[in-house]
Amino acid sequence: MRIDVATIFPEYLDPLRHALLGKAIEQGRLNVGVHDLRSWATGAHKTVDDSPAGGGPGMVMKPEVWGPALDDIAAGNTEGSELASALPHLNRPRHDELEGIGGHSYEPTGEDSSLPLLLVPTPTGKPFTQDDARQWSHEEHIVFACGRYEGIDQRVIDDAHKRYRVREVSIGDYVLIGGEVAVLVIAEAVVRLIPGVLGNKRSHEEDSFSDGLLEGPSYTKPRVWRELEIPEVLTSGNHGLVDRWRREQSLKRTFERRPELLAGAHLDKADIKYLEGLGWTSA
Ligand code: SAM
């Protein structure tokens, strides 16, 4: 996969070089280019924003800067912006590198899939989900356009449809100062699902949201810590009982914290009986 990010704060994207993403870069599974939007700005002051048409507070990012930037990035006409991994643990295997990862199904959207995917973070976008992360983990080229101020002139997004498959995406119902943090969130969620990046496929198959439920609590050694014991079943050695206990913890946590998710989850008879015991009633 290749990821390109256009931003007026390239250094903000430095965390992409660390940890799992840095490892994916080292493995050659990921190339990342971070581009300073100001290099497409003209004029002595390299201005990237202007006052809003029709008046009002704040500033809007200029189309004459964003247009050429997205043209060049789509065409691969960028140089000297490759991000190298900053990892200190070159080639050191992770504890969960046990087996390969199979592919996921990809839902066709009816668009030209040879076009790169342009993700535009904005609080007005469609909420980003684990399903999006799963689908986008199969993309060859993802480009992120980081807005600042009041956002990017809408014509940039409308025009980009000629060269990209465009998605405006929100990471939550709150307003950030800029799109950079949203890019880090989305890139991390997507890259960890690229086949082979996370060694053990169970690590993400059992994650929250993967089966429509939240994951239950996790424990490790020691068995007793500050007089608190690991649930007995986890040390029983009975895998069937452990699996059922995990399933019930997952159901319980989802019921308590995100009951609306239960309507879309695949539940069997035993799940429904357990949930009804907790007071859940299916609609
Ligand atoms: N005026 C915009 C509005 O009310 O919708 C908010 C602009 S915000 C101050 C500046 C930039 O931060 C946006 O262009 C976007 O890139 C980013 N941003 C802010 N909140 C976000 C969110 N919840 N999800 C994704 N990106 C966000």
From TrEMBL:
NCBIfam families according to UniProt: PRK00026.1 (NF000648)
Q: Which domain of life is it from?
A: Bacteria
What's this chain's function?
Specifically methylates guanosine-37 in various tRNAs.
Please identify the protein, giving its name as recorded.
tRNA (guanine-N(1)-)-methyltransferase
- Bilayer-crossing residues are none
Q: Which species does this protein come from? A: Corynebacterium casei UCMA 3821
Q: Cellular component per GO? A: cytosol
Please name the InterPro entries in this protein's record.
Answer: Alpha/beta_knot_MTases, tRNA_m1G_MeTrfase_C_sf, tRNA_m1G_MeTrfase_TrmD, tRNA_m1G_MTases_N, tRNA_MeTrfase_TRMD/TRM10
